Structure formats: structure tokens, C-alpha cells
């Protein structure tokens, strides 16, 4: 079977520190994999290596079996790797609509079109409106992104990713810093993506209840290395995860 | 129709719309309302600087890049035409050749500067462009065989554009329609076209990407936009439009020298116009250029009066000396960066949103 | 019970559009080691930074040693007797170990002015500091930098020590060293507020514990009680979710 | 857990201090390379001294600029104002004491020059204090606005200088004893250049000593690295920054006097013109590095003089060329200042 996405011996060092240490892992198409691990385990760095924000010191990233290690972040985005960020990362002074439209436009490869009026591309705008609809932000389409409450900004972050229509969705703690009543909205969006069946989803998340419910599979990173991989219930119960989270037993 | 012409970017403020209509109407009626060489000259300068300021805003306001090399491209345009006309004689072919060559030089230069240094931080880029522009200015005054050195080049332009054409001009509403009037209207028409083209560019899908880069370059990259390409494209476009503004300048003045197109003072003027008019809005360039150039004349006259009135008060007299007008615009500049960074246009639009 | 050395009441902190702390109530008693536990994003680091004044509380109050610290600037807060070891260790890489230590001492102008006896004591805790005394701190390994960060914080006695995840990313041997150092530090009656994710590390050192979640302290009590009570651990830390089913 | 692991080999390894000597070798390499190219040895000596003198003055001026950048990420496009203020103050001060400056006695010349230097430093420092408060403080951490506003400060400053000292160029003659040259073998070396070199070395030595041997210096270097931590240790970094800014302005004032005497005339534009050289120097050196600033300034001075002799037309671009070459070799400058 060809993996939708695969990393082979993926490694990055910062000075003497190995942040991600020879992680080999394949992600089957249509599955949702949760990546867990304590703070500083290298999860976000692992994401950065896959989406191209960082270049690996060693190892490779493969998309549908093709080595994409040499590609830049924009090129990987065009190949179908989409990424939502841990800290909200929007265009603050542009409107909600324009934020999403920039993603739709990138997907359509229209960025270098200098001679048409942007608002005349009805198809792109319609597509953006659809996405707005799914995240229930239609009423706020003309507000500047910076003016949105935090929960809506997180929704917009996810909406931008959906507008890109990637094959691989990467969510980095999508519910971080959200109030309790806002969390289900985001989870419903991810659940919706999962039920489409053809999307490969990678999810970094700390809330174990969320992970257990959504994930088909869990991998555990600890000190940059992949230490466990498998069925959610099994992995969560395994001693290695206990150790990663609780700390190594040290003689008293 | 208007919507298409303005690329969907309407003034969005009644006051601004009225102001713009007044400016445009004023510019087109100047020969008839304010006869005399001086008024026409100020109006022509306004037109040229609208193009120049708009092209600078494409870079500074829309893409968020500070460059101090913008007058270099302005100078290349002006020198290109001036040198071609000196060498090839006053023909339209010479104008086309000069402009074409100047555009090529600007293209190459802006591409090199862009690719070499656009990856670095804003301050770094500002410093590098400042250094390059200074070197270019020195080059222009050293190559006096071509450029006329510090004296510059006085040029003969195609006959159509000279005040001696035609021998017996027709009178229209009491104004003699000679070559000077013709060249003014050609200039004004070119300004309108170039302005609308730039307005279109900033309102195209491409223009939106530029704004996205200004707002959050990292995220634009993650969306799949190769930002180096866009930043370089913005740099090149802005340089080409500045070059065209330079062509217009040389054709209007029948002269070009370091002080009219290359000097750092003009760069400063440009900064003042962009910031006061409003960064990130094309209309800001219209408002900024008009206000600045009117102030340059009006303010100096006012200061002359004030200075004479205060001739007994030592320091104050010197502070309002007409040569010190830049002092006051400098103060205005600093205040506007602090107080209303979106400039006059931004302020007007904001007001329009607050009370619809 | 006497008044705590440090007391936070209803502290809210915003960072930009983020509302991170949603009313933190926390007490740190004189002479004890209090551990702040909680998963990633619970607000532990933000709590420490808010105490240090690096981020300002948007509402609520912070009292330290009988004084209101809520609106004070970071240098004032530090001078009132709080030492801080940040998550990134804050080691000055261009400076030598000796110079790093010197900067943390208030009166000393030169390394020779440092209290020799105390220095020997610190060298006893972290022998590597003596060995690399004249070396640029940037060349130290991650574990050594962490030691330097802690050593620097105790170069002079302080009323309160704030330490952010001293075990993060360290090899087991170094963690062991760190635990012994903190044990020794506790002997000197230093009050410590320690942020940890590593529960076993925390369990060995803590007198008191506060557990954070969603920007609030959701449990406070003695470490002994929490360490005994598996159910409470499960409930609070959500760490061993499936392990005992 | 195995307790022997506490003395793991990784702990024992003593890190080696790597001294980055390559950029420093550039200076002698460049000087040696120039010997055959300049033709005669005596010409070479004259040119080298001229280059070193120019470099030293630029270093004095640029040192404050690069430190201010390193400490607070503030790049002051208005630094030239302090230079011009210093130069004009020298005109005024020396103009008040013609008898002393025209005297053939060295001590009388010095008695005129030293107060002029001091006044220039103090006043430029005060101007810096005002500049920091009014122009820079409101735009900390906003690079775009900072560039614009410091440029605005430059415009207004230059205009105010014109109000005080007038818009024209003013002569600034050297005190009598500093005129003329000394003969070193066949080579003639201008006396003033020797003074400039000595003064530049002195400033470098003092700065180096302050930065590496005093607590204030340690704080500055620590602040460049991590200003939040410096505050967490109980120091007011703002106050430190203002101190560095004022000291940097004072040095620029001192350098302005030196530059004015070097040019023997002063215009209101003098600061703006030197600004460009300063930027080239701090880019070459690595922004924030004093050592880099020193090497960069001397490189710029030497290259300008060698090129000026060998190919005058090229000389005007030699600095830009130098900058491009250095950046191609080390994109962060000769001594990149490490920021985690």
C-alpha cells in the first residue's frame, strides 16, 4: 500500500539538540492519526518538517510515494499538504472573506493574475462563501480578522485550511486556548472531514478524551523520538505513554 | 462602468469622493481657471508625482517594503529620455527608445536588488537601498559625458510638445492651445491611464497577495504563495512605474539633472506624500501629492509673509523662513506617522465606516 | 495558617487576543516547595510570567511578601526578592558561566566579589559549573545550561524561586542531579514554585501541589495526598486515562 | 536508576572556544595585497594611514549605532543629526578661540580642541536624549514606523541645524600644530591622521574594556542576547538602553568633530552623507557587533583610499562592492551576533 504521507528517518538538530530523532512513520489515506507527547516532545517541529517550514537535517518526507524533501513550503502546499497553526496565524487587517479567499485563490493558482478585478471572480468568491458557511462565519465576513473574538479566529484558521482543499490536513492543537463551549464546533469540523473518508488527517492534541474518540491511531513522540504507535486505547494504556507523560520513575 | 474603471475600489467615503472629484476637475481645468505658466507647472508636477507616489505606495503601502531607491528609478526614466533626445534629436523615436531602454535598465536593476536582498529584514533592505541609491547618484554625476554631471541636460523635445507649436495656435475660451497645453493634456491623460492601471493591479488577485504578505508573510508562504516572487514582482512593478514617471518629468521640464529627479530630497518628499496621503491606498497618492505640492508653494508664500512680520524676533524669524518649509512638513510627517498612520485617506474612510 | 509568601487572587491574563488565564487563585506558603502541574496549554508558564510581570494581569491581584505586585514592572518584582528560571533557561550564550552568575548578584561588580562559600555550595550541587567557569555559556549542553540557569537563580539567597520545567528535555541522569539539587535547596528553607509536567519529578520534591487546567487552578492540596490517590490523579491529570480500566 | 550515569562522558567534554579569526585577517590581507598594486611603498604607507584614519573616525561614529541596534533592535536613520551637531559645535567652539587654534604651540591647540570635543560630546548626547524620548520611544518594536519616523527626525534635525548655523558650508580649519605631515622614510603621513588613528584606537580600547570587563558592559551584552531575562534579574533595561543611546550619540558627536576636521569644512548635510557609510559599515560588521563594526570601518576606510588612488571612478562604488562581496561570503556580516 502507498501511504498518503510518510516520513523516513526524519531528523532535525538544532546545535547539539536533536528535536526530532529519526522518526519513520506512514499515514494511510483516509485515516486520522493523533500525535501526542509531552511538552517539548517535538510534535510541532515534526509538523514543521512535514509542511516545509523547517528543513530536515536527515531523512525524507514522501507524499503519495514521491520524495518531497527538497520542496519549499509553498510547493508542498500546492502538492496538497495543508497546515493549521497552533497559534492563530491570520492576516489581521484583512477581512474574514479576504482571508479565506486568499486560500481559495492559492488553490486555484490565481495569485499572479494582475489584470482582473479580484471581486469579479465569482466562482472563487462562491467557494469562499461555502467555506464561510460551514464554519458559521458568514455574518462576520466583512469584519477584519483581528476584530474577531478568539474562538472565531480559531474557526477562521480551520476555515482557511479547508479552503485550501488539501489531501493532508495537519491540525496543531486546534482547540488550544478555546473556551469549553467553543471546542465542539472545531471538533465537529474535523469529524466532518473524517467522515468524507478520503482525507488524511494528522492531529496534535492533548485532550485525551478528544483523541480517543476521534483517532484511528495514535503515535507518541517523546524527546523527539517515536516511542509508541497503534490503536488508541492500547497506546494510551501502554507503560511507555505513562512514562512519557508521568516522567521516568526515578529511584527515591 | 465606473466600477470596472476603478477596479471595484471606490472611494468609500463621501468626503473623499468629493475631494477626488475636485482634484481631478481642477487638474483638467487648470489652464482655463488659473492661466499662467506657474499654475500649469504646479499642476503638471502634481500629475507626475501622483504616478510616482502611487508606484512607491505599491511597494511601501501594499507590500510593506521600505525602499530608499525609488528616486533612482525615477531618475533612470528621466535620464533615459533626456540622453536619448540629446543623442538622437527631438523625435518620437528617440522618446520611445529612451523610455524603452530606461525601462529595461530599471527592470534589470530592480530584479537584481530584489533577488539579492528581499529575503532580509525590513531595516536591512532599507539600508541597502539607501546605499545603492547613493552610489547611483554619484555615478550619474560622474558620468558627465552622458548625463551632463551636476548641470544636467537641457533637451529639445518633439515639436508637438513645444510652446512654439503651432505657429498660430487656436484660441479656446481665451487660452491659446499651443504645444505646452497639448503636452499638459497628454501628461494628464497618461497620468490617468497609469493610475488606473496601478489601481487595477492592487485590486487584482495579485494585489491581494501583496497585502497578505504585508500582513503576515509567514502565513502567505504556508498558503502556497512563494513570497520572494511576489515581493520581487512588486519591487519590479513599482520601479517600472517610477521610470515612466521619470520619462514624463523629463518631457515636461525639457530638462533633467540630479536635483530634479535623483536627489535624496525627492525621496524625502515622496515619503512625506505617501505617509500624509495614506499608505496602502492608491487614492492616498492623489491626495498626498496634491496637498504636498500645493503646500510647497502656498506654505512658502505664507511663510514669507510671516518671516517678514517677525523680522525683529531672531529665532522665530529663522524658523518661519521660507527655506525652512521642509521643517514644518517634517514635523507634520512625524505627527502623522504617530497619530494617523493610515493618512488622510485612511482617516476619511474610517470616518465613513463609523457613521454610515 | 500564616499569610502565604505569594498569593494570586482571580488573575486573568490576556496575550493579544488570547485569554490565557481565567482567574487563577494560587498560594505559595513560606518555606515550602509548591508544584504547579497541568498539561500543555493549561496556563502554567503564563502564570509564572504573570507573576514576574513579563505579561501583565488584566484583572485580579498578586501579593508577594505583604506587597501588592500586580502592576509592578519586572525589574521591581525581581528586586523584591524573586528569582526566575524561564522555560528557555534564559542563559546568556555570549557570556561566560562566571559572567552569567555575576549578573544575578546584586552588589558584586566582579566575579571575585561573589560570596565564596555560597559559590562552593553551588559547585557542590552542580560540579559542571566549576569546571566550565570561564567558558562561554553558549557552548554548554542543554542539561548544563539548565543547571546554570538554576545556579544563577540561587547565586544569592532569594525569598522565592520560580522555576519553569527544569526537567524538560533532560537525560535521566541529569534529572537525578537536578532532583538532588532541589532537595538540598529545600534544606535551606527556600520557597519554591515549580512548574512541571513530569509527575514523578514533581512527586519527589513537592510539599504542596496545584493543578491547572484551562487557565485556572482546579485543585490545590498537599502532594502527599495526591500521590496516594490514584483516582484523584486520573481525574486531575487525565494522564493515566485508560491504564486501570 | 544507574547512578554512575551522572558522570556520563557528555558531561566531561570541555567545549572548545572557537575564535573566529578569519575576518580579522582580512585587514592585513587587504593591506598586503595593496602593496604591489599601489606601485611604491611610500605611497602605500600614506594611503594605508589615510585609510586607517578614515576608518577610525567612521568607527567612532558607528559604534553607538550598532550597539543601539543590537540592544533594542532600533535602527536610527537619524544618527547623522548627532554627527552634524558635533561638527558645527566644533566650528563654533574653535571659532571662539582663534588665538589658541592658530598658535604654533601644541598645548595651546589642545587646550582649544579638547574643550571643543567635550562640548560636542555633551551636547550631542543631550540631543540624543531628546531624540530617544520624542522620536524613538513611541515606536519601539515597529520596524516600519521606526524607519519612517527616524527618517523624519533626520529631516527635522537637519532643518533645525540650518536654522541655527545657516544652510551654507562653513570652513573648519585644523589647529595649526596639526597641519602638515610627518615624514616616515619616503612616506608622508599627515599629522592629523595619526591623531585620528590614536583617538580611534583609544575609543575602541575603552569600549572593549567597558563591554568585556565592567558589569554595565556585561549587561549590555546580555541585553543584546535576551532583554527579558535581564529584566527578570532585576535590571531596568530601558534605562540601560537610554544610557547606551546617549553614549552612542555623544560618540557620534565626537566623530562629527573629527570628520569635520578631516574634511576641513562642515555642511548641514554632512551627517546625512556619512549615514550611508555607517550603514555599510554596520552591515559588513554584523549588526550589533562592536568588533565587527571596528573591522568593517577599517575595511571601508582602506578600500576607499586604495581604490581612490588606483581607480578614482571605481572608488565611489568600492564600498558598495565591498558590502556585496562580504554579504555573499557571510550573509549576516563578518561577526553575526547570535540571537537564539
What would you say this structure looks like, in words?
The complex is a heterotetramer of chains A (252), B (356), C (245) and D (340). Chain A has 252 residues and is an alpha/beta fold. Chain A has one domain: 3-Layer(aba) Sandwich (Rossmann fold), CATH 3.40.50.300. Chain A has nine helices and ten strands. In chain A, a hairpin with a 2-residue loop joins β9 and β10 (225-230). In chain A, α3 runs parallel beside α5 (150-163) and α4 (122-134) packs across α5. Chain B has one domain (2-352): Orthogonal Bundle (ABC transporter involved in vitamin B12 uptake, BtuC), CATH 1.10.3470. Chain B has a two-stranded antiparallel sheet. A two-stranded antiparallel ribbon of chain B has the order 2-3. The longest helix of chain B has 28 residues, at 282-309. Chain C has two domains: 4-81 and 158-244, P-loop containing nucleotide triphosphate hydrolases (Rossmann fold), CATH 3.40.50; 91-156, no CATH class. Chain C has helices spanning 44-52, 74-79, 97-104, 116-125, 127-131, 142-153, 172-187, 199-205, 223-228, 230-237, and strands at 6-15, 18-28, 33-37, 57-64, 67-68, 82-85, 160-164, 191-195, 208-213, 216-222. In chain C, α3 (97-104) packs parallel to α6. The longest helix of chain C has 16 residues, at 172-187. Chain C is globular. By secondary structure, chain D is mainly α. Chain D has a single domain, classed as Orthogonal Bundle (ABC transporter involved in vitamin B12 uptake, BtuC), CATH 1.10.3470. The longest helix of chain D has 32 residues, at 41-72. The radius of gyration of chain D is 22 Å and the shape is globular. Mean pLDDT of chain D is 87; it is low at 1-15. Chains in contact: A-B, A-C, B-D, C-D. The B-D interface holds B 64, 66, 116, 120-124, 126-128, 130-132, 134-135, 138-139, 142, 264, 268, 271, 275, 315, 318-319, 321, 323-324, 326-327, 330-331, 333-334, 337-338, 341 and D 75, 77, 135, 138-139, 143-149, 151-153, 155-156, 159-160, 162-164, 167, 272, 275-276, 279-280, 283, 287, 313, 316-317, 319-320, 323-324, 331.
Amino acid at each position: 500500500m502507498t501511504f498518503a504521507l510518510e516520513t523516513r528517518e526524519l531528523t532535525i538538530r538544532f546545535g547539539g539538540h536533536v528535536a526530532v530523532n529519526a522518526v519513520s512513520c506512514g499515514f494511510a489515506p483516509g485515516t486520522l492519526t493523533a500525535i501526542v507527547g509531552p511538552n517539548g516532545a517535538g510534535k510541532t517541529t515534526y509538523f514543521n518538517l512535514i509542511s516545509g517550514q523547517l528543513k530536515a537535517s536527515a531523512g525524507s518526507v514522501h507524499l503519495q510515494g514521491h520524495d518531497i524533501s527538497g520542496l519549499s513550503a509553498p510547493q508542498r502546499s500546492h502538492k496538497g499538504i495543508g497546515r493549521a497553526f497552533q497559534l492563530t496565524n491570520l492576516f489581521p487587517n484583512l477581512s474574514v472573506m479576504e482571508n479565506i479567499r486568499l486560500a481559495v485563490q492559492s488553490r486555484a493558482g490565481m495569485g499572479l493574475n494582475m489584470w482582473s478585478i479580484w471581486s469579479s471572480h465569482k466562482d472563487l468568491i462562491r467557494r469562499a462563501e461555502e467555506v464561510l458557511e460551514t464554519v458559521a462565519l458568514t455574518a462576520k465576513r466583512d469584519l477584519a480578522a483581528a476584530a474577531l473574538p478568539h474562538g472565531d479566529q480559531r474557526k477562521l484558521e480551520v476555515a482557511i485550511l479547508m479552503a485550501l482543499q488539501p489531501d493532508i490536513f495537519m491540525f496543531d492543537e486546534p482547540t488550544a486556548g478555546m473556551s469549553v463551549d467553543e471546542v465542539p464546533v472545531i471538533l465537529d469540523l474535523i469529524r466532518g472531514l473524517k467522515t468524507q473518508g478520503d482525507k488524511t488527517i494528522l492531529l496534535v492534541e492533548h485532550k485525551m478524551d478528544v483523541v480517543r474518540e476521534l483517532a484511528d491511531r495514535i503515535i507518541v513522540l517523546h524527546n523527539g523520538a517515536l516511542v509508541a504507535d497503534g490503536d488508541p486505547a492500547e497506546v494510551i494504556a501502554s507503560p511507555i505513554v505513562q512514562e512519557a507523560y508521568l516522567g521516568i520513575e526515578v529511584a527515591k | 462602468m465606473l466600477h470596472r474603471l476603478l477596479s471595484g475600489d471606490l472611494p468609500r467615503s463621501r468626503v473623499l469622493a468629493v475631494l477626488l472629484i475636485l482634484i481631478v476637475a481642477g487638474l483638467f481645468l487648470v489652464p482655463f481657471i488659473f492661466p499662467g505658466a506657474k499654475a500649469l507647472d504646479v499642476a503638471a508636477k502634481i500629475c507626475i508625482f501622483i504616478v510616482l507616489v502611487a508606484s512607491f505606495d505599491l511597494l511601501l503601502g501594499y507590500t510593506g517594503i521600505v525602499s530608499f531607491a525609488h528616486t533612482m528609478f525615477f531618475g533612470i526614466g528621466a535620464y533615459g529620455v533626456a540622453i536619448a533626445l540629446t543623442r538622437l534629436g527631438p523625435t518620437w523615436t528617440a522618446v520611445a527608445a529612451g523610455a524603452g531602454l530606461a525601462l529595461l535598465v530599471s527592470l534589470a536593476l530592480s530584479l537584481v536588488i530584489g533577488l539579492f536582498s528581499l529575503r532580509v529584514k525590513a531595516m536591512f533592505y532599507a539600508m541597502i537601498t539607501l546605499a545603492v541609491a547613493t552610489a547611483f547618484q554619484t555615478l550619474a554625476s560622474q558620468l558627465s559625458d552622458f548625463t551632463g554631471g551636476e548641470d544636467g541636460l537641457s533637451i529639445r523635445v518633439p515639436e508637438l510638445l513645444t510652446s512654439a507649436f503651432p505657429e498660430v495656435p487656436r484660441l479656446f475660451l481665451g487660452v491659446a492651445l499651443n504645444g505646452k497645453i497639448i503636452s499638459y493634456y497628454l501628461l494628464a491623460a497618461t497620468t490617468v491611464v497609469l493610475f488606473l492601471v496601478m489601481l487595477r493591479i492592487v485590486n487584482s488577485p495579485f494585489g491581494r497577495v501583496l497585502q497578505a504578505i504585508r500582513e503576515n508573510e509567514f502565513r502567505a508562504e504556508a498558503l502556497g504563495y512563494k513570497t520572494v516572487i511576489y515581493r520581487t514582482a512588486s519591487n519590479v512593478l513599482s520601479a517600472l512605474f517610477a521610470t515612466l514617471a521619470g520619462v514624463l518629468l523629463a518631457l515636461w521640464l525639457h530638462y533633467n539633472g540630479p536635483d530634479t529627479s535623483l536627489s535624496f530630497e525627492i525621496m524625502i518628499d515622496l515619503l512625506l506624500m505617501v505617509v500624509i496621503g495614506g499608505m496602502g491606498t492608491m487614492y492616498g497618492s492623489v491626495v498626498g501629492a496634491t496637498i504636498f505640492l500645493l503646500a510647497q508653494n502656498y506654505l512658502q508664500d505664507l511663510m514669507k509673509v510671516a518671516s517678514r512680520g517677525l523680522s525683529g524676533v531672531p529665532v522665530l524669524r529663522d524658523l518661519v523662513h521660507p527655506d525652512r518649509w521642509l521643517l514644518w512638513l517634517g514635523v507634520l510627517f512625524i505627527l502623522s506617522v504617530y497619530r494617523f498612520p493610515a493618512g488622510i485617506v485612511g482617516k476619511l474612510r474610517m470616518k465613513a465606516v463609523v457613521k454610515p | 495558617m500564616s499569610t502565604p509568601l505569594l498569593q494570586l487572587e482571580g488573575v486573568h491574563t490576556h496575550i493579544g487576543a488570547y485569554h490565557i488565564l481565567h482567574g487563577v487563585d494560587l498560594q505559595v506558603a513560606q518555606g515550602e516547595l509548591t508544584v504547579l502541574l497541568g498539561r500543555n496549554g493549561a496556563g502554567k508558564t503564563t502564570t509564572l510570567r504573570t507573576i514576574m510581570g513579563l505579561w501583565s494581569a488584566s484583572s485580579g491581584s498578586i501579593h508577594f511578601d505583604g506587597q501588592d505586585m500586580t502592576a509592578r514592572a519586572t525589574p521591581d518584582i525581581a528586586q523584591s526578592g524573586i528569582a526566575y528560571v524561564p522555560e528557555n533557561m534564559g542563559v546568556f550564550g555570549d557570556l561566560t558561566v562566571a559572567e552569567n552568575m555575576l549578573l544575578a548578584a546584586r552588589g558584586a561588580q566582579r566575579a571575585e566579589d561573589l560570596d565564596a562559600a555560597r559559590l562552593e555550595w553551588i559547585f557542590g550541587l552542580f560540579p559542571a559549573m566549576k569546571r566550565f567557569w570561564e567558558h562561554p555559556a553558549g557552548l554548554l549542553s542543554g542539561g548544563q545550561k539548565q543547571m546554570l540557569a538554576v545556579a544563577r537563580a540561587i547565586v544569592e539567597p532569594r525569598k522565592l524561586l520560580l522555576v519553569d520545567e527544569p526537567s524538560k528535555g533532560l537525560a535521566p541522569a541529569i534529572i537525578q542531579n537536578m532532583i538532588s539539587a532541589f532537595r538540598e535547596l529545600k534544606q535551606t528553607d527556600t520557597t519554591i514554585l515549580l512548574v512541571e509536567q513530569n509527575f514523578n519529578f514533581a512527586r519527589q520534591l513537592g510539599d504542596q501541589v496545584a493543578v491547572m487546567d484551562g487557565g485556572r487552578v482546579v485543585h490545590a492540596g498537599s502532594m502527599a495526598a495526591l500521590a496516594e490517590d490514584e483516582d484523584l490523579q486520573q481525574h486531575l491529570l487525565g494522564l493515566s486515562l485508560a491504564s486501570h480500566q | 536508576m544507574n547512578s554512575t550515569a551522572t558522570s556520563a562522558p557528555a558531561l566531561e567534554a570541555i567545549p572548545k572556544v572557537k575564535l573566529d579569526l578569519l575576518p580579522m585577517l582580512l585587514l592585513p590581507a587587504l593591506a598586503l595585497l595593496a602593496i604591489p598594486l599601489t606601485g611604491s611603498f611610500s605611497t602605500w604607507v600614506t594611503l594605508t594611514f589615510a585609510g586607517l584614519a578614515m576608518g577610525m573616525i567612521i568607527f567612532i561614529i558607528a559604534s553607538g549605532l550598532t550597539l543601539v541596534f543590537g540592544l533594542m533592535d532600533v535602527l536610527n536613520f537619524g544618527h547623522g543629526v548627532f554627527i552634524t551637531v558635533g561638527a558645527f559645535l566644533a566650528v563654533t567652539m574653535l571659532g571662539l578661540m582663534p588665538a589658541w587654534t592658530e598658535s604654533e604651540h601644541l598645548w595651546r591647540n589642545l587646550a582649544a580642541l579638547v574643550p571643543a570635543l567635550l562640548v560636542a560630546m555633551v551636547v550631542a548626547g543631550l540631543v540624543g536624549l531628546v531624540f530617544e524620548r520624542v522620536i524613538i520611544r513611541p515606536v519601539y518594536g515597529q520596524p516600519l514606523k521606526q524607519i519612517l519616523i527616524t527618517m523624519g527626525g533626520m529631516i527635522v534635525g537637519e532643518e533645525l541645524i540650518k536654522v541655527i548655523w545657516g544652510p551654507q558650508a562653513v570652513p573648519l580649519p585644523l589647529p595649526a600644530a596639526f597641519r602638515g605631515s610627518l615624514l616616515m622614510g619616503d612616506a608622508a603621513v599627515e599629522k592629523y591622521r595619526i591623531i585620528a588613528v590614536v583617538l580611534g584606537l583609544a575609543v575602541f580600547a575603552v569600549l572593549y574594556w567597558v563591554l568585556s570587563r565592567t558589569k554595565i558592559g556585561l549587561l549590555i551584552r546580555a541585553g543584546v542576547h535576551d532583554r527579558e531575562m535581564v529584566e527578570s534579574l532585576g535590571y531596568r533595561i530601558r534605562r540601560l538602553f537610554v544610557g547606551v543611546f546617549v553614549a552612542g550619540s555623544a560618540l557620534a558627536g565626537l566623530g562629527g568633530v573629527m570628520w569635520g576636521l578631516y574634511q576641513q569644512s562642515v555642511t548641514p548635510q554632512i551627517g546625512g552623507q556619512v549615514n550611508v557609510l555607517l550603514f555599510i559599515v554596520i552591515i559588513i560588521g554584523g549588526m550589533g557587533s562592536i568588533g565587527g563594526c571596528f573591522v568593517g570601518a577599517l575595511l571601508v576606510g582602506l578600500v576607499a583610499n586604495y581604490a581612490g588612488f588606483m581607480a578614482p571612478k571605481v572608488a565611489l562604488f568600492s564600498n558598495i562592492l565591498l558590502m556585496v562581496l562580504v554579504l555573499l561570503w557571510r550573509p549576516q556580516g563578518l561577526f553575526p551576533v547570535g540571537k537564539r
